[in-house]
Amino acid sequence: MTKNKAIIFMLLCFTLIVSACGTKPAATTADKPATGGDAAATTPASKDSKLEQIKKAGKIVLGTSADYPPYEFHKEINKKDEIIGFDIEIAKEIAKDLGVTLEIKDMKYEGLLAALDSGNIDFILAGMTPTEERKKNVDFSKIYYTAIQRVAVRAEDKDKYKSIDDLKGKKVAGQKGATQEKIIKEQMPDSELKALGKISDLMLELKNKKVEALVVEQPVAEAYLSKNKDLVLADIKLSTEDSGSAIAVKKGSSDLVEAMNKTLDRLMGAKSIDKMVAEANEQVDTQ
């Protein structure tokens, strides 16, 4: 091979190599290694459910508003202030079934849902009605107790106030953030609403003639009225379709709801809640 032929041969080889590199097919999706995003999509979530968190912590935190006898209220027992009531007894049964201890946090009723959302408490037992509006933000257990809504008035005014119309232009009280406040707004639009956070304060408003009537659940009214003979239940009829009470938990806690419903089924099946209500009423000592 002459020198010129050798040079030509080397140039041809170089050209073939360059051409081969330029025609290499692009890698397909199947050829590409999995990206971090794809790996994350196939990795199962490791975050514990609310029920698992509670069991690992060994305790469950109850949020309630302990001024609502016979549901929950303060009472001195053996010279020590205790929170008791049939809601509290239900909470104790739930904790027992879960195998954890119960911690109780007492707060204003209107602050309960915010405390649940922030994780400050694990569940709410406070005679709370599972309205459609509340269901948008929290999950509820099945209804464990249903009470009739009534109107309390001063005994001297029982014949004066016999219908909703009789309360037009009058001040009517209800617990702030509770079903009773909604009832007054919707069913007594011509009355003047006065909403306060504590039932005991509302009862004093009625006794001291600061309001003319008070919308309240019947067992709660009976607990107070049994100790306050100057107050009675009026014959005023209210529509109370949404008066049942349920347990509230944070949205997305379906396993916790299921566990709580099992406890409620056991208690309701044995009629234990009716017994708890009766026993709580016996312990009420209001002024």
Question: How would you explain this protein's 3D organization?
Answer:
It is a single chain. The protein has eleven helices and 15 strands. The chain has 287 residues and is α/β, with parallel strands linked by helices. It folds into two domains: 50-146 and 244-283, D-Maltodextrin-Binding Protein, domain 2; 149-233, D-Maltodextrin-Binding Protein, domain 2, CATH 3.40.190.10. A five-stranded mixed β-sheet has the order 5-1-6-15-7, sandwiched between helices. The longest helix has 20 residues, at 3-22. It is globular and about 60 Å long. Residues 2-8 and 13-46 have low confidence and may be disordered.
Keywords:
single chain; 287 residues; alpha/beta; D-Maltodextrin-Binding Protein, domain 2; 2 domains; 5-stranded mixed sheet; 11 helices; 39% helix; globular; disordered N terminus
Largest sheet: 5 strands, mixed
CATH homologous superfamily identity of the largest domain: Periplasmic binding protein-like II
Q: What gap, in angstroms, lies between the N and C termini?
A: 122 Å
Q: What strand line-up does the widest sheet have?
A: 5-1-6-15-7
Radius of gyration: 33 Å
**Content-based structural category:** alpha/beta
Shape, please? Answer: globular
- Name the CATH class of the largest domain: Alpha Beta
Overall CATH architecture of the largest domain: 3-Layer(aba) Sandwich
Oligomer: single chain
DSSP, total strands: 15
How much helicity do the residues have? 25-40%
Strand content: 15-25%
| Unreliable spans | 2-8, 13-46
Order of helices and strands: HHHEEEEHEHEHEEEEHEHEHEEEHH
Indicate the mean pLDDT: 85
Number of domains: 2
| CATH fold description of the largest domain | D-Maltodextrin-Binding Protein, domain 2
Q: Tell me the number of helical segments per DSSP (H or I, 4 or more residues long).
A: 11
Family: Belongs to the bacterial solute-binding protein 3 family.
Region (Disordered): 28-47
Subcellular location: Cell envelope
Organism: Paenibacillus elgii
